[in-house]
Design brief:
By secondary structure, the protein is mainly beta. It is built from 2 helices and 40 strands. It is about 5% helix and about 45% strand. The chain is rod-shaped and about 160 Å long. The protein starts with a helix and ends with a strand.
Length: about 550
């Protein structure tokens, strides 16, 4: 009875000492074995430990931590540092919970030691039906980073009512991200909340502001660390440059240069409080208002013309280039140059001096005649015989086809967009005199010829500088020798500037433009615009901003 009580008391004390220990932590008792490990299942456990120098034998005991009556085992004497425990009566470990394994050692110096180790029976996890997670929502601004190459060949353009991005595909990418920022270092803001599936994207930002765009490749829940950064200025598309008109009887024909990308044009002609409009497809570059000029028209009145281009996808209207006004046409009652009773066959009129060619136009001057009521002016390619009426001029007035006043009442300036540079033209001036007894009017015909001037090419210089706000490029060119000229400057960054030039009579004076330019290579196109926006030859300059 006494030995049994002693064993039970010793076990109770040992159990009490380790009830508070966390599972898996070893407690040293004397100089017992170290490195104890227990692995197993609910049916068996394997106990191993480090060999002890001088050990004569080992022993293993096992009991349940929270119930000493359960699962106790007699001491097993062993000659090696391992033991496989099959539980009570080889029935495994019938109760879930934590078990205490005590590994003892008997040394050759007649001393003993023991180490205890706590092991929790591994219980299988009950199977349960778990709904699959929803597919991830790819928030572009919170993506992880992976190794994807930066998109190459990034090109940005105004086309025509949006900013359009194109780039080359990246191997391994499933989408792309475009961020925008006010500087080359950001802060960056995604243009759209999810990756772009294609290699092209259209976006309409605030116009006329230099912004930086960062294009990156994305894959699954990640976005590339590398990106391509390009600066660009979005510009609203321009209305047609170069608007001119002609009168033939009661009809007015309006012509214009095409606006790239336009789908429809709206043409408006107004005279005082009267206004008429026509809409034509972008395949047309002229329209005729039939019967527009009534007989009651005030002599030498002014007709204002406006051509507006509309761009897809929503027919947004274009904008006018600064300093380039609308077209104008001086009009007269149809009977002034096209009398109702008709005309007598023309006779030779007075000899006129040859027209004077200037940049973007032709100037005709002839002396006054007291018997002339009006002049009708026609133009044809030299030798073609294909005459087209340009205008009806009342005698004794200052008139031009472009609406620009002159000091001579017998001067006519042809500034039509139909004029081609370095081309020979003929002008026919028909003077309409008084009517004879039959009511038909006397006519006198004069024909002169001249060749138009070549398109002026500007010699453009470039100077790179910097301020506390960044880098700039200063473009400069000589002032034209004749005429009033605008200069349209566009850059590879999308910048657009209209430099207005007025001739002051100072030989050798120059003009120019200042443009913001970040580091890199930039290309500038400089185009003179004559008389209402008719473009001349373009000069291209490439500049490197270090």
């Amino acid at each position: 009875m006494l030995p049994s009580l002693i064993r039970h008391r010793r076990s109770s004390i040992a159990a009490a000492l380790f009830l508070s220990l966390p599972a898996g932590l070893a407690a040293q008792k004397g100089t017992g074995p170290t490195g104890i490990a227990v692995t197993g299942t609910a049916t068996s456990a394997t106990v191993t430990w480090q060999p002890v120098a001088g050990a004569l034998s080992y022993s293993v005991k096992r009991w349940k931590q929270d119930d000493l009556r359960c699962c106790n085992n007699a001491v097993s004497t062993l000659g090696k540092p391992t033991w496989i425990d099959y539980g009570v009566s080889e029935a495994g470990f019938p109760q879930a919970g934590t078990y205490v394994f005590e590994v003892g050692v008997v040394l050759d110096n007649n001393t003993t030691g023991a180490t205890q180790f706590l092991w929790t029976r591994p219980d299988p996890v009950a199977a349960s039906i778990i709904a699959p997670p929803p597919p991830p929502t790819l928030a572009v601004n919170t993506l992880a980073t992976v190794s994807l190459a930066a998109p190459a060949g990034v090109v940005v353009r105004n086309d025509p009512s949006a900013l359009v991005f194109n780039w080359q595909p990246v191997y391994g990418a499933t989408g792309y991200q475009i961020d925008t920022g006010p500087t080359i270092t950001g802060p960056w803001t995604p243009l759209v909340p999810a990756p772009i599936a294609t290699t092209q994207f259209a976006y309409t930002p605030a116009p006329a502001t230099l912004m930086y765009y960062r294009v990156s490749a994305a894959h699954s829940l990640a976005v590339s660390t590398a990106s391509t950064i390009v600066p660009f200025v979005y510009q609203l598309p321009l209305n047609p440059l170069g608007v001119s008109a002609t009168q033939s009887g009661a009809d007015v024909t309006v012509s214009w240069n095409p606006a790239p990308g336009a789908s429809v044009y709206t043409i408006t002609a107004s005279n005082g409080g009267t206004q008429v409009s026509r809409k034509v497809l972008a395949t047309s570059t002229s329209v005729t208002f039939v019967g527009l000029i009534p007989e009651s028209t005030t002599p030498n009145d002014n007709l204002t013309l406006k051509v507006v281009a509309h761009f897809p996808p929503n027919s947004a209207p274009g904008v006018d280039l600064s300093h380039v006004g609308t077209g104008n046409l001086t009009i007269n009652p149809p009977s002034a140059c096209w009398p109702v009773a008709g005309e007598l066959p023309p006779t030779a009129g007075q000899t006129l001096p040859p027209p004077i060619a200037y940049a973007g136009g032709m100037s005709l001057t002839w002396p006054l005649s007291g018997q002339v009521n009006a002049y009708r002016i026609d133009r044809a390619l030299a030798g073609s015989g294909q005459w087209a009426t340009l205008m009806c001029l009342r005698a004794g007035t200052a008139l031009t086809s472009g609406g620009r006043s002159t000091q001579s009442s017998t001067t006519f300036r042809d500034e039509s967009i139909a004029l081609q540079p370095s081309t020979a033209y003929q002008y026919r001036v028909t003077a309409l005199g008084p009517a004879d007894a039959t009511g038909k009017h006397l006519t006198y015909e004069s024909i002169v010829s001249a060749t138009t001037a070549p398109r002026q090419t500007l010699v453009v210089g470039a100077l790179v500088g910097s301020t506390t706000n960044g880098h700039f490029v200063r473009l400069s060119w000589p002032q034209p020798r004749a005429g009033t000229m605008n200069v349209l400057v566009t850059s590879s960054l999308g910048q657009r500037l209209d430099a207005y030039t007025t001739i002051g009579g100072y030989s050798g004076s120059s003009t120019g433009a200042w443009l913001e330019a970040p580091r890199g290579t930039h290309t500038f196109a400089v185009t003179p615009l004559y008389h209402g926006g008719i473009p001349a030859a373009t000069t291209t300059v490439s500049v490197i901003v270090p």
